[in-house]
Amino acid sequence: MRLWLWFYKDFAPTVLAHGVIMDMKRILILLLACLATPIALAEPSLAEKNAAENVAIEKEWESWNAPFPPLRLIGNIHYVGASGLSSFLITTPEGHILLDTGFETTVPRIRDSVTQLGFKLTDIKIILNSHAHTDHVGGHALMKELTGAKILMSEADAALLASGGTNDFTPYSKEMMGYRPAKADRILRDGDKVTLGGTTLTCHLTPGHTKGATTWTMDAVEDGKVQHVVFFSSTSILQGVPLVNNPQYPGIAADLTASYKKLKALPCDVFLAPHTGFFNLAEKADQLEKGVRPNPFIDSKAFKTFIEQAERKFLAQLESEQKNTSEKKASVN
Ligand SMILES: [Zn+2]
């Protein structure tokens, strides 16, 4: 590009003025410029593309991390997270359970929200998670320091947490996905129960988004009625993660297939999730604030609709990748 600028600024007027090209050296440079042009005007390099993508993601993360007014959602479940990143506080007479800690920079927001609702941060006894990505467990180490709470986690997510998010299978850089590592105090298996002060949460391993992604269920009582609550783990497939021939996670498609089967079988009256957009927090919180009854978070269709839609997307990607793979194989044979 610079060569072209030089040519227009300096060389072109010379040609116009004299009508003939006098300087052979400049002709040579012009030829070189012509050869260099396709390179200069070519697509941005992979590194440039990745850098631009990283900036866009970091901007999105910043917006997710904006404060959100805390509120009681239903029964003993409170929202204490940021505007795009959920953190749920499940309160009991014997202390509280915190599900997801956001980024490390989300922790002060969670602390303020817990206090604003009239609870004590140091009463948090157990820290759980949806999945061990930086935007949901990046604050685990700090939250554990501030509260002395125990971290309970699936085996695979505990390994990811211990690595500070760096032994993951995403195509994103370790700098981007990394966070302060923390150690799990108890490893959870599928079907395990976590009980505190009369509240019990059940652990459902739903791998795919991370290898240890965990969906939680519990019963909440609202107006004397029991409501089945699902805290979904996420099953999104990150951009650039292959479902077929994935050397870092060969079982990804099989795991997601099994996770969808499991998720579709869960009874759900209240759908909650690690990202607020999944369950329309802002809209429902606004309705709740305006006094809409029954509680707008009670919606027996929301989870089913969300999961069916996500599964269709997964199956379409799987089918397209399988087709491409078999076409490639056919052309080789
Ligand atoms: Zn994630």
Question: Please, could you describe this protein's structure?
Answer:
The protein is globular. Helix 1 packs antiparallel against helix 2 and helix 9 packs antiparallel against helix 11. Helices cover 42% and strands 18% of the residues. By secondary structure, the protein is α/β, with parallel strands linked by helices. Strands 1-2-3-4-5-6-7 form a 7-stranded mixed β-sheet. It has a 5-stranded mixed β-sheet with strand order 8-9-10-11-12. The two termini are 44 Å apart. The chain binds zinc ion (ZN).
Mean pLDDT metric: 89
Number of helices: 11
Instruction: Count structural domains.
Output: 2
CATH superfamily of the largest domain: Ribonuclease Z/Hydroxyacylglutathione hydrolase-like
* Number of DSSP-assigned strands: 12
In this entry the ligands are: zinc ion
Oligomerization: single chain
Question: Biggest sheet: strands, sense, closure?
Answer: 7 strands, mixed
Q: Roughly what percent helix?
A: 40-55%
Order of helices and strands: HHHEEEEHEHHEHHEEEEEHEHH
Shape-level CATH architecture of the largest domain? 4-Layer Sandwich
Strand order of the largest sheet: 1-2-3-4-5-6-7
Radius of gyration: 26 Å
The global form is globular
Low-confidence spans: 1-22, 27-40
Which topology of the largest domain does CATH recognise?
A: Metallo-beta-lactamase, Chain A
